[in-house]
Amino acid sequence: MKIALDALGGDFGARPNVLGALQAAKKLNLDVILVGDEAVLRQELANLGYAKEPEHISIVHAPDTIDMAAEPAKECRNKKNASIIVCANLVHKKEADAFVSAGHSGATMVAALFGLGRIKGVQRPAIATPMPTYKGVSLLLDGGANADCKPIHLLQFAVMGSAYMQKVFDIPAPSVGVLSIGEEETKGNMLVKHTVPHMREIGVNFKGTVEGRDVNTGETDVIVCDGFVGNIVLKLAEGLAKTMIAMIKREVKKRPLAILGALLSKGAFKAVKKHTNPDCYGGAPLVGVNGVAIISHGKSNDFAIFNALKTAARLVEKNFVGDIAAKMAALKPTFDNLEKEIHQENH
Amino acid sequence: MKIALDALGGDFGARPNVLGALQAAKKLNLDVILVGDEAVLRQELANLGYAKEPEHISIVHAPDTIDMAAEPAKECRNKKNASIIVCANLVHKKEADAFVSAGHSGATMVAALFGLGRIKGVQRPAIATPMPTYKGVSLLLDGGANADCKPIHLLQFAVMGSAYMQKVFDIPAPSVGVLSIGEEETKGNMLVKHTVPHMREIGVNFKGTVEGRDVNTGETDVIVCDGFVGNIVLKLAEGLAKTMIAMIKREVKKRPLAILGALLSKGAFKAVKKHTNPDCYGGAPLVGVNGVAIISHGKSNDFAIFNALKTAARLVEKNFVGDIAAKMAALKPTFDNLEKEIHQENH
User: Fold this and answer.
1) pLDDT in tens, B262-307
2) Which of B75, B184, B272, B273 should one mutate to test binding to chain A, selecting the residue with the greatest count of A CBs within 10 A?
3) Is-contact A115 A23, C-beta < 8 A?
4) Residues A324/A125, Cβ–Cβ less than 8 Å
5) C-alpha distance across the termini of chain B, in Å
6) ipTM of model
7) pTM to 2 decimals?
8) Are residues B232 and A212, on separate chains, in Cβ contact within 8 Å?
9) Between A and B, how many residue pairs show a Cβ–Cβ distance under 8 A?
């Protein structure tokens, strides 16, 4: 199996990407194509002691770089030789089975959409983000691909998210919740009110609405919301966890006994940190595009890249894209019908 | 000054309400009217050693109870003698200067709206919730009163939230952020995109958009969003903080040394808990109604009730309602104009 890696993507340049690729090649026997400026990548390999590409590793030259500040769609159209565009094209031309990028997530999304297209029947691909919870891990989607959504989009996210939790986390009938306010199904905003009544018609294991306070307890395996709310939830959770640790440290430093206490409790804190480390969960796939595309965190280290490559391989192996295509085909009459119904409810 | 208290409101019945009222009477010289079933309240006072109402405390009988599961508007219309309705009416008849309730927040909102009406020019009253941050406290609004909002609502929330931080937290020019995704002002959902360009026209100290990760660092004094997003943010922050503490405890318990360490660090954890305790911040006022109405947490203890009464008194003293009325009157031409402009942008 061959995975294309946007090898200069992310905040730390080539190093974590190349290291992650080397580990995936060694431990998983994956063929990894490093996509990016060839000279830079060769230099990085040389720095790591490789005079030429080691086994399972190849390089595809892609000299352009995406300007993070510019409009992603425009950048992707103008820069055919940007690494992320080349990655998507390798998958499109079947020269790679999947791609992974820790680069600009907006650009990755556009590249995947342009290069791979959508699975038939999918209206809006979504970023499916694994979130650590008290019980284990839940999948939140959409994590930020679509700031404004319609009920039909949320219903499709539920189908795709369930498929992902089945394939990657081996959960036979993943439970699904719609993120809302209040436990009653009559509460929520217009989007939620028009989504919830139809959740039981699409063959997912729907458990009702979940409130903000249920997100991190792991109430449901899949949590569905629009990309605006989803992105705020993800960033808030990340930020709040850091703020709490910073607050604890600030107070510990004021107390000599507490400093000793913190040293003794270090193992417990490390275990929590490990469990809540997003690097473990293999990045966030863009579900709904016609190919496997994984968005990894901009701050990905080699371990995160390794895990993203591993997830990509697993999705290919399990025929994730084919599975969603089959589900969407089977649900086509239902979705066509629902769209009419929801349209009437709104007018 | 007289404050009406929904004395049976909240999850713990009369006890924390009566205790909070007694403290406010003693420490702040506030006159508190306990509103609720008279027999129950007299019994509670007797249990606390008072044969009759102590100084500054009076009772107004209100025998009906609001059914939490029922539709708030209907309940409020049918139950004229429910404590929350009586509270709002006492303020309306000027027999009290403000009211506080830890009861059903939906019912409190409806009671305040029916009983007090809106301040002229305010389209939608909002729940303004103080949130603990790394730096201190920020005010988030709307905390859940309006699940679907228009740009004009968010703009008015910014004006009212700024006035609150000026009056209650003595911040001369509170900074204001619009909660969004991405730092660029061009990102966000349609609501945010149509709100942000007008934020500089309404005389608040606008700092741009803030991301989810900035909420708990205390980036801005006021954070504006719709009530759906706001409620999810509040509940998520509350839930995540609890989940993290539970995770740390779980790991500590597995390690004998860490148990000792946790004992030694106890003071630091207590300080963090104290700083992040929502009970300190005096409840969440419903801003925009024509009177002072404070919603306290359902799980309020006597300390939380005391602080909510204190905040209510402060808002009355500082003429918070008059201040907002003056600001809304001064901004009337601006808001009229903005409404037309935004309408045109949308069509």
Assistant:
1) 888 888 888 888 877 777 777 899 999 999 999 998 889 999 999 9
2) B272
3) no
4) no
5) 50
6) 0.90
7) 0.91
8) yes
9) 203
